[in-house]
Amino acid sequence: MTIASLRRSPQYLPRPLAKRTYSLPARRTLSTVSPEHAKITVGIRREDSSRIWERRCPVTPDEVAQLVQHLDVNVLIQDCDRRVFPVDQFIKAGAKLHSTLEPAHIVLGIKETPLNELVTSPVSAPGLRSGPSIPRTHLMFSHTTKGQPYNMELLSRFLGSHENPSLPRLIDYELLVGKDGKRTVGFGWFAGVAGVLESLSALAHAHLELGVASPFLHTPRPHTHPSIPSLRSALRSIGQNIADNGTPKALGPFVIGLTGSGNVTQGCLSILDELPIVNVAVEDLPGLVSNPGTDLHKIYLVHALPKDYLTRSDGGQHSRDDYYKNPAMYHSDFDTKIAPYLTLFLNGVGWLPSFPRLMTNEQLATALTRAAEVGRARFGVVGDISCDVEGGLEFLPRASTLSDPFFKHRPSSLPSHLPSVTIMSVDILPSSLPLDASQHFCGVLMPYLRALIDEYHGRPGSREHLEALNVATIARNGELQGKHRGLAAHVERWQASRAAEIASKAGVAETSLRKKRVLMLGSGMVAGPAVQEICKRSDVEIIVAGNVRSETEDLTRKFSNAKAAYLDVHDVAEMARLIQGADVVISLLPVPFHPAVAELCIQHRKHLVTASYISPAMRALHERAQSADVLLLNEIGLDPGIDHCSALSLLAQLQRDKKRVISFTSFCGGLPAPDCADVPLGYKFSWSPRGVLNAALNGAQFKLDGKEMKISGNNLLQEYFPDIPISHVLKLEGLANRDSLPYAETYGLGKLENLQTVLRGTLRYPGFADLMHAFKIIGLLDTEFSIHLRDWRDLARVSLEKRIGEQIGSDRRSFLSALSTVMTAERAESALGALDWLGLTPENVLSKTPLATPLKPQAPIELFTSVLAHKLRYNLGERDMVVLSHEIVAQPSLPSIDSATEVHTSSLVAYGNSEASAMARCVGLPVAFAALEVLYGNVQVRGVHGPTDKGLYGAVLDGLQGAGLEMKESVRKGPGMERVLAEGLNARRVAL
To answer: Which pLDDT value is given to residue 148?
Structure first.
């Protein structure tokens, strides 16, 4: 085995800020002193006194001198004896002490401002002694962007009941990014440096408990040295000791595992470079640890990247692009490939809910079991620098503190014979390096601060930095901004909880507070996630009304703010009573019932939300709904729904970038996961089977590769797209979906004659269209006649008899012969095999359909629906999959040097889980998010609409992102898929 040495490339080390000079506007000279009231005032906060380790400061004394002397800015600072820079240095630099910072236009801190010190009142405009005031600006790590409950009161201080220009602006450092989308202002590198030192210290303590003293007993804790160079020197001495004397034989080779590639990981690599490091590959680990001749005068480092431990569930190779598009297709093998061989594990990689965990609790048990077989003291210590509680490392139960940086933990599921794990998980690691961290932070912050100062002066500042500041603004003028509008629900939830608490203390029962009320009509397959999401709001109650009591009760029994109600949809009086008592109505009933529900909503002036397409009958209610001040919101499920929201969001971005759309192609489908798709049609039902069959009868109209095309309902299943090239892994075919042409106007794509392609389609696995067409030829999709069925095995034969007008013998051979008269022999054999599996063929004894035959005659499509619903249902442990993909081909609107076409994609791949199917989540959650937006008064449009309101579709996308259903966007140069689609469709037409 060959082990290559680690390359020691210079790592970034922050240096003290150098003195800088600035060119001043021509109208000023250095000898001119502006009146105090004409200056911008910057305030530097003291940090929360309860954060005893927080010594960092956003601006250094050197930079304060620059602001005061060269930018003619007033700087105020609050007194603080704990700050890394003594206050006297700031005063010497030109700052002035101020207890409240009330005169400051711009207030800077590190962590969130204590509520009792937050100043939200407006401040006098520079240059005016009196007159109109202007809002101030607060910059901080606010910890509000994920709706953190403990900081919703802070966020609420920046919000009003309506637009309020006097309320301050809130900018979060965490949201400041560069053109590449990466964060520009932060402390990640320093977290890596400090995390290594704290973890090595924890490792030495754990080894002492094993009766072994390791060289790392002398590892300096970060806060005990004045600067990083001093820490480097101390660690270098430990490294020299290891090179001279080695590590204890009793512990075997010292192997450090590291994950991640961002700033945290780069900080880790930088400080580890002071040790005698040898880089090793994952595949070298077993031989390295088992070899008695391994050199103990080295520290071995395995920097594991995703390709080293992530594996596709179907055995395919890891690909970064594919991983981010299809995270559910991957699982981690870290527990078997890497963890058992490590002496210390440093985790520097983040985690999101829709992605596989690095290690689950079950995988921890596997890792510890194998580690015990490998040797002593393996995988006993973890430094989780990312500190994502119950995240990538499911067994991380909490963050630790600098006062008590590590602890022992064992999940309840861990077998008793396995040892606990020592964990270092300090969540404020950069605070232990306050000098170096503050100097770096100030350096990267100053361009943004100067741009903000210019903005207050009304001068043209750096456009790049001003745009970044706008993106990083959470609240302004009393309103949430951009993608942060989705935080309104979190704030309202906190407000409702606070109101209930106040009422309770005043002796008023919480139940006396009037809750907002949602009525849900229907309790079918997609209702569960919607009910669960709505019930997260304590100020909202939901009534689920349906005609299957067991379903409504199952949906509501575990929520205190949900009730079940029985409703026969033909009981108009009872439906009207329920609607009258609601604030918003959600209809999950079959499409034909929506117009009647909408009529009652208009009559009682209640808003309505549905996931269905806008039918002609629904559209006819537009003016009446407007007159009644009612919104009838439709098309807010998956397709239609998420497809609209994500397309409109991407198109809005292209418009902002001054790009002209040439082609728009969108495909969506709900499918079984690949491992559950080995059934006829390659399909299972996670929503109404009748809806799927009806969709196969609809005609379609679209424009493709410059040609307008029309496909009749009779031909839809024959004129399909045999290859939809949206995945490197999944082979998919597509069916055109209804009339795509109106979407040129709906989406604002431009004039139809100027577009090459406008196409929306439905995704299926290969073979679906051909087999469904065979079923149609047999007559199983017919609606025009009824059959009185005595045995399910007669369904296909009797349907075909009605179709061809001839009697068919009730034996298998006669049926196959009749089939061969209406389709090719090959197709007949294929259809017969599928019908055998479904239990619908004569003399079939292999696959029976245990359903009772209907007592009354029914149309073949109704009977076929019943069979498919039973035979193609999801069994326990099986999961479905949703695939949605937009492709927009665009080019610059104005002539430019680079006028090549760009292909912009926005895609979603979601899998069902033990709680809900992917289809239920992708239909139910958008309905819930939209209904809540309407309920809270955030949607002002009235009449019949889809989700075209920017505020609405933005809030829905934000909600979906929080639920792990985020659209993934990418862009590349070159042509789109339209040529492939056109060639495939033409080949089908030629074949016919």
So the answer is: 79
Query: Is residue 4 over pLDDT 80?
Result: no
CB 255 within 8 A of CB 343: yes
Quick one: pLDDT band at residue 16, thresholds 50, 70, 90? very low
Q: What confidence tens digit (pLDDT) does each residue in 741-753 have?
A: 999 998 989 899 9
pLDDT of residue 165: 80
Amino acid identity at 891: Q
For residue 211, give both structure tokens: 């009766």
Residue reference for tokens 């479904």: 838
> Which H or E run includes 368?
helix 361-374
Q: What contacts 929, CB < 8 A, 6 or more positions away?
A: 486, 533, 955, 956, 959, 960
Q: What is the rounded distance in angstroms from the CA atom of residue 438 to the CA atom of residue 30?
A: 29
Give the dihedral of Cα atoms 404, 407, 411, 415; nearest 10 deg.
-170
**Rounded distance, CA 7 to CA 472, Å?**
37
Residue 931 structure tokens:
């209904």
Q: Where are the alpha helices (DSSP H) in 743-824?
A: 743-746, 768-778, 795-804, 812-822
Decide: 683 and 915 in contact? Cβ < 8 Å: no
* Distance, CA of 822 to CA of 817 (rounded, Å): 9
CA distance 833 to 196: 62
Strand partners, 968: 907
Distance, in Å, from the CA atom of 249 to the CA atom of 207, rounded to the nearest integer, reads: 12
Q: What is the mean pLDDT of residues 630-643?
A: 93
107-159: pLDDT as tens digits: 999 999 998 899 999 998 886 555 568 999 999 999 898 787 888 999 999 99
What pLDDT band is residue 9 in, cutting at 50, 70 and 90?
A: very low
In the chain, the amino acid numbered 270 is S
Which two three-digit tokens encode residue 717?
């299943």
Mutual angle of helices 527-534 and 549-556, in 10-degree steps: 40
Per-chain mean pLDDT for the chain: 88
Which residue reads 């006028």 in tokens?
A: 899
Under DSSP, the state recorded for 107 is E
Taking Cα atoms as reference points, which of 738, 748, 752 lies closest to residue 697?
738
Provide the token pair at 606.
Answer: 């209640």
What are the φ and ψ backbone dihedral angles of 785, each rounded to 5 degrees? Answer: -135, 165
Rounded Cα gap, residues 638 and 873, in angstroms: 20
pLDDT of residue 566: 92
Exposed/middle/buried for residue 19 (C-beta within 10 Å: 0-12, 13-18, 19+): exposed
Contact (CB, 8 A) for 968 and 656: no
Environment class of residue 531 by beta-carbon count within 10 Å: exposed (0-12), middle (13-18) or buried (19+)? buried
Residue 9 CB-density burial (10 A; 0-12 exposed, 13-18 middle, 19+ buried):
exposed
Structure confidence at residue 874 (pLDDT): 86
CA 543/CA 564 separation, integer angstroms: 6
Measuring CA to CA, which residue among 228, 225, 303, 207 is closest to residue 271? 228
- Kindly state the helix (H) or strand (E) to which residue 598 belongs, with its residue range: helix 594-603
When pLDDT is cut at 50, 70 and 90, the band that residue 686 belongs to is low
b/e burial code for range 915-926 (CB count within 10 A of at least 16 → b): ebbbbbbbbbbb
